[in-house]
Design a protein that fits this description.
- There is one protein chain.
- With 609 residues, the chain is an alpha/beta fold.
- Strands 3-2-4-1-10-9-11-14 form an 8-stranded antiparallel sheet, covered by helices on one side. It has a 6-stranded antiparallel sheet with strand order 5-6-7-8-12-13. Strands 18-17-19-20-21 form a 5-stranded parallel sheet, with helices on both faces.
- A hairpin with a 4-residue loop joins strand 5 and strand 6.
- The structure holds fructose -6-phosphate.
Length: 609
Amino acid sequence: MCGIVAYIGNKQAQTLLLEGLKRLEYRGYDSAGMATIEDGHVRVVRAVGRVSNLEDKLEDLGGLRGNLGMAHTRWATHGGVTEPNAHPHRDDKSGVCIIHNGIIENYAAIKTYLAEKGHKFTSDTDTEVLAMLIGELYEGDLEAAVQAALREVTGAYAIVVMCEKEPETLVCARKGSPLMVGVGNGEYIVASDGSAIVSHTTQAFHLDDYNVVKITRSGFHTSTIHNVPVNPKVVQLELELQEIELGGFSHFMQKEIFEQPKALRNCFRGRCDIDEGRVVLGGVSGFTKELIKARRVVLTAQGTALHAAMIGEYLIEDLAKIPAVAEYASEFRYRNPIIEDNTVVVAVSQSGETADTLAALREAKDRGALALGVVNVVGSSIARETDAGVYLRVGPEIGVASTKAFVGQVAVLTLVTLFLARRRYMSGDMCAQMMKSLQGVPEKIERILEQDSKIRQVTEKYIERENWLFLGRGYNYPTALEGALKLKEISYIHAEGMPAAEMKHGPIALINEGMPAVFIANRGRQYEKVISNIQEVRSRGGHVIVVATEGDENIKRVAEDVLYVPDIEEPLSPMLTVIPLQLMAYHAAVLRGHDVDKPRNLAKSVTVE
Ligand code: F6R
């Protein structure tokens, strides 16, 4: 969602801020802006659309000077995509200037109060209201004014504030939206994620909820909004520059699809003890007893992460023999869920910041569940609020369409399942066999990736079609959902995923001459049944594309196009069957001329409800 970068130091802020904004572009946004303090005055430049539009405008205006400044990419929540609604927002009366990620829920009441005091608003945003509230409460101490204002607001925020009256100070705060401070040599870079910091320094600290930091060139001071001092821990950023650069690929999504074998090898490293037939997971081992006693596992997530969680549900019930359910976090959090004794809740999230997933986790924890995280971003909110967890270790995911994180989530959920299964029912030999197969997944993905040009050709055949179906059963029903989601989110083609058997209960009415239907029909318990479903589509004129197991020649009799994946135990198959679907979605978007890494209306990390 929105991105924040701010700077205080001895360099010209503009160059650094623009570079930071470009690194944050992947998060999704629809306008951008920048402000610096130049000769004691706040100057703001904003533009609708891409960061490059802002860059052009800055150039036309002769640029912004100053060694202290802030910049923002906005993803509209309150108010349309217009320049007046873009950040930074300034309170002319006090000279306060602010950028903000999140939503101030009680902004309407505050706006009424401020309007009564004579404030005039130039935007529809909650952020401008916060700027004016801070200005209203300013009595010569910016840090105190920010603390006082934040005591009045409800909602989520990561903010950076500066003020003409204190032109050597940045004040930042967070609740619910991530914010970190990079600590350089006589300079500080504040950002909503590490990618905007890592080219300048690898030392950084995360702000905790309700914390405020006042930064000057000579140091920083951290406190709560109630002015209680806190001591943040400066840590090494676990992010390498090459991980957030394209390195020869055309798009981050493409790079991340091709990176999956390496990402999985990293995920498995040190976690599979084949000799002992045991999975080693340091992040959950402290809770082994509670986990073995688990009577129910609730997996909660949104979007692609939910599809991984659904595969987790199948894995945990099938192999660890614990009742499991996967549920949208946005539904779980509001439906007054019953959490019985010995319930384990697993929050699955790439970013670790998804607002609904975080809220569902808190709800389950409050009701006594043991909370596990399956998260990619180290130190993220979900990672910090869970009792225990397992990181994906797949490296930063920049492409808005999640690919390597999905495969990483399924891989980690498989490891967690084997960890549980081995300690409950599974023999050491069986567990060792599954781990061997798991470790063979990266090499098998490499073989699928070699078919890239064939997958592109198949996609091209159907590129004009506006409606697609994705169908699978069992472990590959969630894969079908994921294939449909991938296609629609970057190519804007309408696609529906569903269990193949469900088609007869209504969706079959959609099938007309030439409609592409992608079936996942790898060898498995329901193979024959999927073949019957394929026949039903064919006999109504649909074009059948099948993801099948290598060596299955029969399938060619019922399919127009076949994309083969290597054979593997059924529970591990989604990590293979999803790869052709990711590539199809990628090629469809490229063939249609879309900006794959910046799909319309989408944000990488959804930090609002
Ligand atoms: C789709 C996609 C989203 C995310 C969802 C949850 O490609 O990326 O559906 O999976 O927004 O995000 P995380 O995993 O960060 O919680």
